[in-house]
């Protein structure tokens, strides 16, 4: 009987302590400090309004008042850091070649019309700007705008060159970088621990495990940004009637497990910003902010701006 009482009291004490620290993490952890807080984030510069990852897209988003630009980086054969999503140029330029096999001067221009990845049956018609930009061009054009960099390949030279550019343009407090790969994030952190990093996918899974076992409030976190998809948007990108029962169940389960207001509130209280992607309609905008997301990543920066103004959503700092 005494053993049962001991176990019960121990478990009760653990649960109560975990619940307290989940609500009040400052009792155990010092809140992380970052130089910016982003609510409005333009995915690839706003891929639904201008050709993705072009200077025209970035300029449009910044003039609109976006809080952050999200972009992707690769390395050319002559070791130039370029802003482009795919490693192969076929989708974006019509030329079937890998960026790493071409010099910057050899890169073809974008196609005039590109599909919007996160909007069903949607295409963006481009203007005159079809050039693949250099990362340094983006840094020079927008010295005060926070930028979210997805390091697309596991390449030590690419990681070092991005870090060198961040240092050169004095952007260590205005940049966040990473990838879904934990190996790449670890290399980024090792190369320059002063640049904030994103949670990798394995770390997101670990985060969820810690959250659901009650251990999260006790564990220190090195990451400053959680950037995750809202799983429910899959049903808007694919025909639900063509999804199998198991696919629908996995989507539902992932949404239930990931979209937790108590998790987002805890991370926010610890100074970890939570970004949900890629949301392109008002229903998802509203849900994300109701869940406590710090910011929303969108292909349609104008639509998100109008929503935020209509809802009187507080501006970022």
Topology:
Layout: H1 2-23, E1 40-43, H2 55-64, E2 68-75, E3 81-83, H3 90-93, E4 113-115, E5 123-125, H4 135-141, E6 147-151, H5 156-168, E7 175-178, H6 182-191, H7 201-213, E8 225-229, H8 234-237, H9 245-258, H10 261-269, E9 273-277, H11 282-290, E10 295-298, H12 301-311
Parallel strand pairs: 1-2, 1-10, 2-6, 6-7, 8-9, 9-10
Antiparallel strand pairs: 2-3, 4-5
What does this entry look like structurally?
- The protein is an alpha/beta fold.
- It has one domain (37-310): TIM Barrel (Alpha-Beta Barrel), CATH 3.20.20.
- 40% of the residues lie in helices and 14% in strands.
- The chain contains twelve helices and ten strands.
- The chain is globular, with a radius of gyration of 21 Å.
- It starts with a helix and ends in a 6-residue tail after the last helix.
- The model has no long low-confidence stretch (mean pLDDT 95).
- One of its GO terms (biological process) is glycerophospholipid catabolic process.
- The chain crosses the membrane at residues 6-28, 204-221.
Radius of gyration: 21 Å
Task: Give the overall average pLDDT.
Answer: 95
N-to-C series of helices and strands: HEHEEHEEHEHEHHEHHHEHEH
Which architecture does the CATH hierarchy give at level 2? Answer: Alpha-Beta Barrel
Question: Number of helical segments?
Answer: 12
Question: What's the CATH superfamily, by name?
Answer: Phosphatidylinositol (PI) phosphodiesterase
Shape: globular
The number of domains = 1
Q: Assess the beta-strand content as a share of residues.
A: 5-15%
Count of distinct strands: 10
- Please give the alpha-carbon distance between the first and last residues: 56 Å
Helix percent band: 25-40%
Query: What's the CATH class, please?
Result: Alpha Beta
The assigned structural class equals alpha/beta
Provide the low-confidence segments as ranges: none
**Could you name the CATH topology?**
TIM Barrel
Largest sheet: 8 strands, mixed
Family: Belongs to the glycerophosphoryl diester phosphodiesterase family.
GO molecular function: phosphatidylcholine lysophospholipase activity; phosphoric diester hydrolase activity
Keywords: Hydrolase, Lipid metabolism, Membrane, Transmembrane, Transmembrane helix
Pfam families: GDPD
